[in-house]
């Protein structure tokens, strides 16, 4: 479905900029239909709106060069990481140039003594962790896709570990970015904390490429814990699972991961990942600490779960079993799609204060039943964050309409509970109306910031806010 937008194309400017970039970048500039389409939105229900050209950059200076050409000719710029975003973030409603940062994938420095590293934006989270393997350190943010760190910063991503280690907003120490006029700025130094001026790092984190192009990031790292254990526990119903999560977090057990999968999602994971867990609402868990600490945490959790009817709680410190469990969790999206072959997932996420989690998930399940949709639920529930993937035939307008209704109801319910229409996927094109509902007058302040930094509205126009 195409999203209506009042943005118009600057045909002459685009043609001129494309000519300049083609000459300057040669084979690293493409206008092929396949490449352009792959750089628009490809993951969900939102119709692909490709850019006019794609430039594959190698350095901050090259990004600045491209931005200056586009600024001079009033041409939109859409930064591209790995293309895994879910809300139409990469579409080019007014055309323009996609800057593909995937070849900027060097790990520039690791400072084990300071627990940080410096990377280019095209490094993916898996590549960083492979590089860190022998250092005793790791980078904890793990969205389901192997996304780029520049893209993850730009969507303020999180994942299964956020309950313990925070989201991208907590783990980026500074950024280098090319601003809409081509200026190159570094937002902070490498110190762990600073009260020096406006927090430009956090302004750019979550900006979805609408304020500048990130070309370098300094990230916090964590020490790999002495012991890690993982567990699985099934429940009679989703409320019992959610209430266990609430009690566990309130009791102060420092959960590293606590993930909910509903009955349908468990059926999908069992089939897709060749597991044989009970087909019931289930929590996947992970505990980090000393050997004695993880044992104690697991036992405490087991006691709480039992109070809420949790059964079959088993836990292991065995590396291979843990890896299998979390691979299944990370494959949950693909497992869900395989429940109804030929369909695509209309994926949405919401986040509420933890005390409202059970109510919000129950209300969502009632909506799914009422609308007659097949829509498994998974969630990083330790944060009050959950995802729903409605499996629909994208060519069937009635199904699409129902999925949109579901997404609208989930957002409205979460906002009504003092929560948010997106805990981690971002706004892009798809959730702009919900952002209006959620923050109302604050959007005028966002518009003022956007106009001040990007007066020509060339940085990823049509995303987050309508100007
Ligand atoms: C199977 C699956 C599971 C997922 N699970 C999660 C999850 O658990 N948690 C979660 O948070 N998300 C999840 N996502 C969504 C997605 O992976 C994240 O939004 C991710 O952060 C996007 O990174 P990317 O590199 O793919 O960025 P892209 O999709 O390429 O870009 C995303 C946005 O960031 C901008 N951007 C990209 N790079 C830069 C840059 N260097 N400078 C400025 N702007 C830039 C783009 O213009 C765009 O607006 C999932 C997606 C899929 C397909």
From TrEMBL:
Example of a GO MF term: D-lactate dehydrogenase (NAD+) activity
Superkingdom classification of source: Bacteria
EC identifiers of the protein: 1.1.2.4
Pfam family, any one: FAD-oxidase_C
Entry keyword annotation includes Metal-binding: no
Listed cofactors: FAD
One example of a Gene Ontology biological process annotation: lactate catabolic process
Transmembrane segments: none
Organism: Afifella marina DSM 2698
Alphabetically ordered keywords of this record: FAD, Flavoprotein, Oxidoreductase, Transit peptide
Top EC group: oxidoreductase
Annotated protein name in UniProt: D-lactate dehydrogenase (cytochrome)
UniProt-listed SUPFAM superfamilies: FAD-binding/transporter-associated domain-like, FAD-linked oxidases, C-terminal domain
Domain spans labelled FAD-binding PCMH-type: 47-224
Family per similarity comment: Belongs to the FAD-binding oxidoreductase/transferase type 4 family.
């Amino acid at each position: 479905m195409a999203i209506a937008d009042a943005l118009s194309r600057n045909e002459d400017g685009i043609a001129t900029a494309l000519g300049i970039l083609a000459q300057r970048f040669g084979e690293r500039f493409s206008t092929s239909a396949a490449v352009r389409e792959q750089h628009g939105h490809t993951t969900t229900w939102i119709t692909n709106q490709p850019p006019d050209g794609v430039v594959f950059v190698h350095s901050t200076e090259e990004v600045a060069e491209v931005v200056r050409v586009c600024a001079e000719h009033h041409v939109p710029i859409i930064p591209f990481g790995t293309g895994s975003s879910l809300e139409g973030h990469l579409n080019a409603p007014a055309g323009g140039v996609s800057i593909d940062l995937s070849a900027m994938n060097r790990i520039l420095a690791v400072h084990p003594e300071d627990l940080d590293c410096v990377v280019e934006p095209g490094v993916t989270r898996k590549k960083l962790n492979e590089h860190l393997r022998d250092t005793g350190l790791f980078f904890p943010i793990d969205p389901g896709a192997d996304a780029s760190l520049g893209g993850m910063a730009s969507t303020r991503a999180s994942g299964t570990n956020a309950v313990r280690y925070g989201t991208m907003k907590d783990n980026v120490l500074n950024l280098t970015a090319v601003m809409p006029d081509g200026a190159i700025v570094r937002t902070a130094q490498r110190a762990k904390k600073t009260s020096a001026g406006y927090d430009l790092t956090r302004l750019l984190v979550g900006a979805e490429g609408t304020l500048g192009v990130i070309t370098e990031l300094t990230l916090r790292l964590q020490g790999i814990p002495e012991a890690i254990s993982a567990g699985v526990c099934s429940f009679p119903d989703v409320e019992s699972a959610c209430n266990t999560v609430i009690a566990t977090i309130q009791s102060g057990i420092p959960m590293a991961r606590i993930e909910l999968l509903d009955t349908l999602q468990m059926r999908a994971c069992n089939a897709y990942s060749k597991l044989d867990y009970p087909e019931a609402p289930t929590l996947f868990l992970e505990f980090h600490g000393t050997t004695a600490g993880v044992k104690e945490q697991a036992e405490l959790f087991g006691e709480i779960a039992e109070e809420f009817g949790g059964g079959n709680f088993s836990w292991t410190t065995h590396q291979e079993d843990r890896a299998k469990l979390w691979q299944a969790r990370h494959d949950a999206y693909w497992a869900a799609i395989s429940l109804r072959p030929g369909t695509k997932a209309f994926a949405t996420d919401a986040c509420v204060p933890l005390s409202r989690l059970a109510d919000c998930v129950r209300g969502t399940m009632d909506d799914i039943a009422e609308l007659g949709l097949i829509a498994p639920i998974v969630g990083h529930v330790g944060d009050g964050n959950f995802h729903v993937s409605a499996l629909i035939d994208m060519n069937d307008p009635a199904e699409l309409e129902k999925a949109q209704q579901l997404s609208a109801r989930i957002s409205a319910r979460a906002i009504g509970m003092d929560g948010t229409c997106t805990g981690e996927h971002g706004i892009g094109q798809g959730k702009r109306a919900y952002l209006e509902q959620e923050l109302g007058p604050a959007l005028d302040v966002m518009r003022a910031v956007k106009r001040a930094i990007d007066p020509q509205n060339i940085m990823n126009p049509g995303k987050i806010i309508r100007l």
